[in-house]
Specification:
single chain; 524 residues; alpha/beta; 6-stranded antiparallel sheet; 5-stranded parallel sheet; globular
């Protein structure tokens, strides 16, 4: 890895995407106790949300939801009147598809079981803190958006399958037909109502084109081996009326996000009039990616929030139990634990929000004049909490790096994450190299961060910048898999470029190239 040579010789560029400012989130508060409702409304406004209205009964809640069209509803389960909050939430979900977060003073099993009926997006037990309220709202909104995207993807996929000119038959794990499109009906002669529920061999019988002898059905082969089959030509389809049709075909495995095989999809076409299947494959992959991302998101957020929430709970219980016996120093220590846990959750939420902004094209870009050399030195000092860490980062600078125009916040995200990773994945005592080079002719700055750490497996390097992805060799080293995704988003927003070279047991070098003239980049 020639890090300094890279600084002198590599100057690249990349794409950018636009930023669009988001409007404040609108929240409807449903609470039958006036003082509590006003308190919640005040908390929401302090957190930056817009309260569209408050309602004290289920009927009023439904009316206000229709009138104000909020982005989210905070719903007290126990309401006065004929309907409770659960019934109102179900009605709002059915009519308006608005996410509902329950508020209640009860967390018993029966209450939770009843609350599940309306498929809530969150559940907060009163009394609660502002940060708990904010986390519940943001996660509910994010989950609602992901479900909406998944539903749209599924509807789009179903439309594509129905409208494809190639025949498509989908089966379950036992080889029973669960879907057949119009083209498959035309090719096989089997209408959908007769084909559904039949074994695939009955609806899509195949023989060898040369011998006209039966062959092992490719759908059965795929279900047994869990590997796709693409044999191209050489098969005859025997239609319902006995006609032989030469076909090309491909059979793929359908997997759940967990990797469990749930069936197979067979795509086939008359080879006299070939049809491409790339669109089907792309959409199937898109659905799997959305499902996988949703699963990874829920798993990561649940895991990362569980530890700090436990720390907060334990510290709060100790404060409550020993408030008279504990010394001032002990109380301060408990408070510091709570603060550290809240800061950890806040950092994670900010990372998730930044990723969401980047993926939706709304990542803000605010270029300012920066002295890059001083910026790097200040960052190293900030990152080094003790003298030992400070001396582990070796910094060099080449060229005139005092007149750059970049987004300081995004640049900080880039360098903090790369340096923190370099320190985290390096054995104790090993140094980390940060080289900065500025080329006045090319008007670019190059940052190279090199460590002598564990390295990154070659097969993992392609997916490094995907959200929640972590290399297989990280072991028990903590992390969320968001850092490099954030780095990539910030580099792209600068119209920059990032590359990585790594060898196991030797170390890793990340090279980031950014334009010096950020004021020329479209900030909208």
């Amino acid at each position: 890895m020639q890090c300094r040579q890279d600084v002198q010789d590599i100057f690249l560029s990349a794409k950018t995407f636009k930023e669009a400012l988001t409007l404040p989130v609108k929240v409807l508060v449903v609470e039958d106790e006036l003082i509590v409702a006003r308190t919640i409304a005040t908390q929401l406004q302090q957190l930056g949300y817009t309260v569209t209205a408050t309602a004290s009964t289920a009927a009023k809640a439904i009316t206000k939801a229709v009138e104000t069209q909020p982005d989210l509803v905070l719903m007290d389960i126990c309401l006065k009147g004929e309907m409770d909050g659960i019934v109102a939430a179900a009605e709002i979900r059915q009519q308006l598809n608005i996410p509902v977060v329950y508020l209640t003073a009860y967390a018993d099993k029966d209450t939770l079981q009843q609350a599940k009926i309306a498929q809530p997006f969150g559940y907060i037990v009163k009394p609660f803190q502002e940060n708990e309220l904010r986390v519940a709202i943001e996660i509910a909104l994010y989950r609602h958006e992901m479900e909406r995207a998944l539903q749209e993807s599924q509807e789009q996929l179903a439309t594509i399958l129905r409208s494809m000119k190639d025949g498509v038959i989908v089966t379950d794990r036992q080889g029973t037909v669960t879907f057949i499109n119009l083209a498959a009906k035309a090719l096989t002669g089997w209408p959908q109502e007769e084909a559904i529920g039949q074994q695939v061999e009955s609806i899509l019988p195949m023989v060898d084109e040369a011998t006209e002898m039966p062959v092992t059905h490719p759908v059965r082969q795929v279900l047994q081996t869990e590997e796709a089959v693409d044999l191209g030509d050489g098969r005859l389809l025997i239609t319902k009326n006995g006609r032989s049709v030469p076909i090309g075909y491909k059979v793929s495995v359908l997997r759940q996000a967990s990797g469990v095989v749930e069936g197979a999809v067979a795509v086939f076409w008359d080879i006299s009039d070939r049809r491409q299947t790339e669109q089907l494959t792309r959409n199937l992959q898109k659905e799997r990616e959305i499902s996988s991302f949703r699963s990874q998101f829920i798993s990561t957020v649940s895991h990362e929030f569980r530890n700090p929430l436990s720390a907060i709970l334990i510290a709060a219980q100790l404060l409550q139990r020993y408030q008279n016996q504990a010394t001032s120093e002990q109380k301060q220590r408990y408070l510091e634990r709570i603060q550290a846990a809240v800061e950890r959750m806040t950092d994670l939420m900010e990372d998730l929000l930044l990723i969401g902004q980047a993926e939706s094209g709304r990542l803000e870009f605010m270029p300012t004049s920066i002295n890059l050399e001083q910026f790097c030195r200040d960052l190293i000092a900030e990152l080094s909490s003790d003298e030992e860490k400070f001396h582990r980062i070796v910094f060099t600078s080449q060229g005139n790096c005092t007149d750059a125009v970049m987004d300081a916040k995004l640049l900080r995200y880039i360098l903090i994450n790369l340096l923190a990773n370099a320190l985290k994945y390096s054995p104790g005592g090993e140094t980390v190299q940060l080289d900065l080079g500025c080329n006045a002719d090319e008007r670019v700055a190059i940052f190279c961060i090199q460590d002598r750490g564990i390295g990154i497996p070659q097969e993992d390097q392609v997916q490094l910048f995907q959200s929640f992805y972590r290399a297989k060799n990280v072991g028990k080293i903590p992390g969320t898999g968001l850092g490099l995704a954030i780095v990539k988003a910030c580099v792209d927003r600068h119209q920059g470029q990032i590359s990585v070279t790594s060898n196991l047991g030797v170390g890793t070098a990340f090279t980031v190239t950014l334009p010096l003239d950020g004021e020329k980049i479209d900030s909208s």
